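Researcher: Quick test of sequence recovery. C-alpha cells follow.
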C-alpha cells in the first residue's frame, strides 16, 4: 500500500467587483450576509495588509505602478523574501504584475480596495442603526423612570 497526499478541493471562483457583491451578498436592508467566497476574499485582503512590508508596498503603489526592482530597493530584505510578499499581495487581489522584457511591473488594483470599502460601509451602517436603537431605548427608559 503506497501513501498518497490528499487531493485539494477545487477553489471557488470569486467575483472581483463590488457590483457583483451588491446583488449576491446584500439583502434588502443592505445588511451583509457573509458567504464563504466573500469571507475568503476579505480574509486574504486583511492578511495581506497585516504585514508592514506589504502595507508599505501598497502605499508606494498608490502613487502609480513600479518595477519590482524599484519596490525592492526601498526594503532591507533579500529579493526572494520580498517576492513572497508580492505573491501574497497578488493572491489577495490587491496588485497585479506584468512583465515586459526583463522588467516586471507591479500595479494596484483598486477593485480590491472597493470590495473592502463596501464591507466596511455595510457594517458601519448596520452598527449605526444598532447604536441609534440603543440610544432610543436608553432615552425611552430614562423617560419612563421620571
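Model:
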Amino acid at each position: 500500500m503506497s501513501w498518497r497526499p490528499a487531493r485539494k478541493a477545487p477553489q471557488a471562483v470569486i467575483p472581483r467587483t463590488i457590483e457583483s457583491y451588491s446583488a449576491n451578498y446584500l439583502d434588502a436592508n443592505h445588511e451583509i450576509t457573509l458567504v464563504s467566497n466573500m469571507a475568503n476574499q476579505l480574509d486574504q485582503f486583511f492578511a495581506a495588509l497585516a504585514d508592514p512590508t506589504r502595507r508599505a508596498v501598497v502605499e508606494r503603489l498608490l502613487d502609480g505602478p513600479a518595477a519590482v526592482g524599484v519596490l525592492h530597493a526601498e526594503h532591507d530584505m533579500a529579493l526572494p523574501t520580498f517576492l513572497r510578499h508580492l505573491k501574497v499581495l497578488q493572491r489577495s487581489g490587491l496588485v497585479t504584475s506584468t512583465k515586459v522584457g526583463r522588467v516586471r511591473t507591479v500595479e494596484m488594483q483598486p477593485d480590491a480596495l472597493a470590495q473592502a470599502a463596501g464591507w466596511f460601509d455595510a457594517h458601519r451602517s448596520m452598527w449605526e442603526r444598532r447604536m441609534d436603537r440603543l440610544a432610543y431605548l436608553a432615552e425611552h427608559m430614562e423617560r419612563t423612570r421620571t
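The helical segments are 18-25, 36-49, 52-61, 68-73, 79-92, 110-145.
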